[in-house]
Amino acid sequence: MLKRLLPLLFLLLFAGVSQAAPKPDDHEALAGLKSARVIFDVRVPDLERLIFNLELLAETLEGMNAQGVRPEMVVSFRGPGVKLLTASVIDKEALELIRGLKKQGVRFEVCSVAVRVFKADPAQLVPEVKLVGNGLTSLIGYQNKGYAVITLN
Known about the structure:
Elements: H1 2-19, H2 27-30, E1 35-42, H3 47-66, E2 70-77, H4 92-103, E3 107-111, H5 112-117, E4 130-132, H6 135-144, E5 148-152
Parallel strand pairs: 1-2, 1-5, 2-3, 3-4
């Protein structure tokens, strides 16, 4: 009886192995790269989207590092969501995500034009973000320095 069960056990044990999906990676896109420069143009309107996008940035950073590519990341905030980066509005989860990313070398910028237009108090911006003159000028400068521009809404 054991002789008849062995082939069945073998099939059951290894059936999942042969049908397992390959682990996804980005090797084709990252082939030949040792580092990559990117600036994220972030225009999120609410805390929920801010947190979602910060988590996405953390996953992107982690994935690139795991695949042997050192990312140079800048996050540029503009639009009405600049108010989200003030001490009176930002929540603990978003602030912890920003702090964690900053510790890993990610730079954060806030457009002073957006701060003025959307009436955010520049004195209330969390210290982890740097106020820049004009977010569009910053995007132009980074793009001309070879940074890929990715918009997050």
